[in-house]
Design a protein that fits this description.
This protein has one domain: Alpha-D-Glucose-1,6-Bisphosphate, Chain A, domain 4 (2-Layer Sandwich). 26% of the residues lie in helices and 40% in strands. It is globular and about 40 Å long.
Length: 152
Amino acid sequence: MAGIIHRVGIKAPLQEVYKALSTVEGIAGWWTKDTSGISQPGETIVVRFVSPEGIELGSMNMVVKALAPGKKVHWNFTAGPEEWIGTDVIFDLHEEGEYTIVLFAHRNWKEEVEFMAHCSMKWGVFMLSLKELVETGKGKPSPDDIKIDNWN
């Protein structure tokens, strides 16, 4: 099975990075403003993406599989684009000097397709938004994110 991976260093304490990844409020600060649900193992978080004009572009449901404070956040997608259903997103965290390192993985894609390339680039954009949020207090969540192509 195919997967997407990224590594980003964030100049901030590990617990601040973990909070941005493990809470609904945190996710809304770097990924998409329209984030709702309950961030607890076994519970569901819903993320919606809308255009600057308010038109829905897509949404996903993810079950929180694991929250290991300061170490890991794990989601499994149960609704959304067909290619995402059954995939897992895992954020592994550790410290290196003054950086918190985020090892991001979006695993279990059935095959490498053009949409996967789009998503890989967008995940990179959102990892940089996460970095901005934690380092400066303001990220660039959707719909204020960098648009990379005609699919967003």
